[in-house]
Amino acid sequence: xLSLIASFLTLAGMVIxxxxxxxxxxxxxxxxxxxxxxxxxxxxxxxxxxxxEWTAAHTGGVVDARFIAIIDTAIESPLGQIAMIPxxxxxxxxxxxxxxxxxxxxxxxxxxxxxxxxxxxxxxxNEIYLVTREVRDRVTGAISTSADYGELGWLLIVVALIGLxxxxxxxxxxxxxxxxxxx
Length: 183
Description:
Elements: H1 2-23, H2 26-40, H3 42-48, H4 51-58, H5 65-94, H6 100-128, E1 135-136, E2 143-145, H7 152-175
Antiparallel strand pairs: 1-2
């Protein structure tokens, strides 16, 4: 059901955001989507710090942790797919006319490289901020690893800040370079 909602919201987001994408520069659109993603990371951080307890108490239990998580996921998941549109537009716009296919292939490789770098970043962040879940032995039921979520809040905050700062700095650097995007 959540996947169906996310797919519908992705299509709706493309239709709703199409005029903004057409009127503004690619850099503006990417910056706006980055800021939106930063804002959408706040409910997860809030859940860790007990936002759901406060909202449930003030809404008669309607807006609880599950409600917040479902709404946040439904809104946040299409954002990644929508964010691909300006990136693909930038690739198409900056590709030399006689090398369009090669340029797309090279840029797709850079995208895969960025995904690999993100995985490495995740690995290193998980080494800095230790978060463990409880693991029990299947035979005896004894706890082999105890749960420790003490650093999860800081991990969520650092990830949100990296997800906000790195793209905005990249946009700033690109806009001050020969790769600058115009309308």
